[in-house]
Amino acid sequence: MLCLVGRYLVASDKVADSPGADFPHRSVPYRGGDSRSEFTQPDIVGLVERDPDSGAGEEGVILQPAPLRVFSAHQNQKASPKKARALSPEPNFLPFDFLPGASSLELDGGPLPLQIDGQKDTSSPDAVIWGRLTEYGSRDQIRLQIYPEYFFDSPKAPGANLLFLPLKLGNLMEGAYPKSRSFQYNLSTDNQPQWISLSLGESVPFIHRFRIDPGDTVQVFLNLESNSLVFAGPSALKFRLQQELNRLEEEFQVRTPPILWTENPDLVLADSTYAAQYREAQSTAGPLLTFQARNRQVLDELASRNLYQSDELIAQSWKLIDSYKDQLPIGLLDFFKMEVELREWKKHLLSINSHLLYANREKDSTEFQAAVVRLAQNQLQKLQPVLEKPMSPHSAEMMDLLEVQSRIKAGVAQQSRYLHDPIEDPYWNSKLLVRLFYQSYEQIPNATQYLSEQLGMLEDSAYKDWLEVLLELKGTGKKVSGFEFFDKNGTIKTLEEIAEGDLILLEFWITGCKACLAFNENTLTAVKEEFGMDSRIQVITVSADFTEALWLSSLESGKYTQEEFTNLYTGSLNRKHPFLLQYGISSFPNRILLDGKGRIIQASQVPFLAEELIPLLKKHLNNSPSKPQSIL
Q1: Which of 322, 434, 350 has its CA nearest to residue 32?
Q2: Are the CB atoms for 502 and 595 separated by under 8 Å?
Q3: E strand segments, 205-307
Q4: What are the two backbone dihedrals, phi and then psi, of residue 237, each rounded to the nearest 5 degrees?
Q5: What is the pLDDT of residues 290-327, one digit of tens each?
Q6: Phi/psi at 330 (nearest 5 deg)?
Q7: CB 402 within 8 A of CB 428
Q8: Nearest alpha-carbon partner for 415 in 353, 360, 349, 346
Q9: Beta-carbon neighbour count of residue 300 at 10 Å?
Q10: CA separation (Å) from 93 to 71, 161, 166, 186?
Q11: Does residue 493 carry a pLDDT above 90?
Q12: Radius of gyration over alpha carbons of the chain, in Å?
């Protein structure tokens, strides 16, 4: 049983100073492709439901703890007993067990351990995390992401659980002040390591993918006023090491000059806005952007780079890990060393892959393209001895590195990156397949057929079970589940209540997404003009905006959808709505094609462009009977 506990303090003049430690700030790298939720509405902190009339830090504001909300990417799946253990629970409201208290009083339905002479009974079947959070504000929830087994870093990963833990008033018997906020969560670790992240709403996690083991007990102190994150308790060293490794990586990143890859810097600076920003950057003490062309010299530098030399991050991180050798088990330190090594190889290969993508896309220099291919092949060969080392089956970085290796191999062969590249080890090969389909199902051509083919080549295993569950969920002909969204009147609508056509184009969008703007302006407008009087087709749009007011404002603007369509809203869950998690809707715009009974026609590769989408719609309409209702 993993037990998470935390405390939140609304700042006042009585709050004690927290121990000094730098708070690890992180930036979210741009991943390219469709617009993503991380880059929309950055000024909105999170997903917490709150009273709009309450102000941050107001005196006299007492918040009642919200119920624990648990969301899984797979809550509606039926599974055999073999699968049931791996699958996540239905989203629900769970009872909240508070911190061990000072007596055997009943609290939230269970006795609390007795505290004697200032000592708590911290015994737990598996692990305990305790914490304290300090800031000005009235936050009432904190976000926890759990990966019982790591496939990729997203709530839609198989088995992943996204939870919003309620914050409760602090306990005086813990030395808390009256306005402190605390949380706790109990989780079975199943006697194996897991990965957890803690964050404040949609902000970048302050604990990002930390390993936690059965038997761990740690206290977490987060003070947003002094920007400090401090660990205490019996397992503090393990968490402190992971924090220091993250900070070391971040320091290395900020010491690396930022680069803008361009063949013509003068063309960039010809823009008056960019030119003014560049002159301003030149006049400050901050870093200055470097303009650099992609050429053979850059490739030669990557080819000659030694990831293990003393000034590189692997050597520096290993030195840090070695400083814990008398304080943490050798096996655990070796695990973290391997994670660092795999991570740095991943980043190195990603640098090469960016040049490979450019060369394959532009194709303006066969010489450069050939040089990139040779570099990629050479570096993949150098990587093989690393991959042949003894590897923990719990490694998260191994999964990430194998995925990047697959991308590079696809780029070298000029094939789709969404085709599986088999590897010899059956364990990692199966996990990589699960990752491919759960992470990228929407991008895989003929996904249902391709998934069925891959399933036929897998031996029975928990990973085959995961893929069978996905096929049952997203396969052609399967009826969608969990479709419950709000209309403009605040009424929850199911698909059965609103379905009118024989063919339903279901589109997901968010305000601020440029691709969503373009899809409405170009594609949806063309669809309306082409099928406006055809009652067989219906367009349903679902917004995942952070607030209802933002959604309604965008509806009124007509920039993202049109009034003739059936327009719905996820509600306060926005990007974390169970339907979006379950069907992997994490980039926008996103599209699913359904028949009139809510069965999936196509859940992958639904075209973005009107000239491709309209013929597809016509093709399916040719096999559909007419209905009398008007659709748009």
Answers
A1: 350
A2: yes
A3: 207-212, 217-223, 228-232, 259-261, 290-292
A4: -60, -40
A5: 999 999 999 999 999 999 999 999 999 999 999 999 99
A6: -60, -40
A7: yes
A8: 360
A9: 12
A10: 10, 14, 11, 14
A11: yes
A12: 26
